[in-house]
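Researcher: Good morning. I'm working through a list of sequences from a screen, and I'd like to move beyond sequence-only analysis. For each chain I'm collecting a predicted structure so we can compare shapes side by side. This is the next one on the list. No need for commentary yet; just the structure.
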Amino acid sequence: MLSRNGRPDPERLAIVLPGGGARGAYEVGALSVLLPELEARGEKVDIICGTSVGAINAAHLASMAHLPAAEQAQRAVERWEGIRRTDVIARIVGPRAPLGLARLVGDILGVPGLRFGSALDASPLRKNLDHWIDWRQLHENVAGGVLDAVCTVATSIARGGPVGFLDTGGRPPPESTSEDVHYVPVRLSAEHVRASAAIPIVFPAVEVTSPRAARGFYVDGGTRLNSPIKPAIDLGATRALVVGFEPLTVRGERSTAGRPPRLSDVAANVLDGLLLDSVAADMHRLAAVNSFFAEGASGGPVPSARAYRAARGRRPYRRISYALVTPERHGEIGRMAERIFAERYGGLGALRDLDYAVLGRLLAGRAMGRGELLSFLFFDKRYIAELLELGRRDAKRWLDRHPAFWCADSAHDFDLDPTRASEERELASISEWRELRRR
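Model: Good morning. Structure tokens for this chain:
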């Protein structure tokens, strides 16, 4: 593909990591297989984009980008193997619990000075990020060209939309015409990553103080843009390695056994929509663009698509090769969390950790609902170990199906039959029209 100055665009490889709390261990398990494979193929990672826990993993990987891939993988796995719940959130059962309850009641009743900031206290995460991530080395890696860019996505409370905190080491970022994401050049730090990971209600909003233009309060980027595929493409990626937490096949209907849903059932569906379904939606749109609008797509209306975008000062769609790692079955991670929780903390096992006992009762409902919610907050060593192994397994499954690593054929992974293909084409056109309406 040619850039606007007539020269070929450089090949850029991006890693895209969505949010999912403790599920971040699955991302690292997958990358522990794929990073050495990329290195063996002579391919270099240029861009890393992450949201929420994906932002934490992205920053950690960026700080190790100068190391051999096998060492990066080993360190990332060891970091997750050592993480415990108290490294991320403060104890639930403790002397501060009555104060939290008082704040909740006071906020509901409008009592001055009593505000309920969040259900959980994330102060341990604030303390540990600087221990986990070598920020100096991250900045050296970006400034020295080991990486082109690192981007973490948060949601601005003031703007009501996604903000990409973008570290390019002081170099001008690649040209972008995006209107969906507001990009802010930064020297990436812990506050930007914590802002990306501040799940609303669960964790408190995070105040970002630098740079001046971005000052304000932010919450989890997953509420607006959980899968940062678009930032990766805006930054010039021609290949995207994406990790997701649910497969792209159609999900079967969940049964509630004829009873009204409980809080955990509703919350699980909300989290699915905010943090999980968007990955599948973005990948389906990428597949539709590859098939119908990108330069060189065999059946797409390339001339009209080119003229349509050129008339609006926008570059032609480019074909993006991808690698996508997800579990094989829907709800697999949630079922894993429920099974391990029941085995370790059911019955008398609740005495092992009173915080988990309380959390299990608060989330009580049908097993699927509780398992889905637990899967985000369950920083148990056995659960983490099984997530890492599941990520490894699914990454190897991708490589078995794609010996050349990359794929751009939507029919291969998305099962686009003629009816579904027509629907995907219409969705891509509608998405383009909506974007233009905002101009």
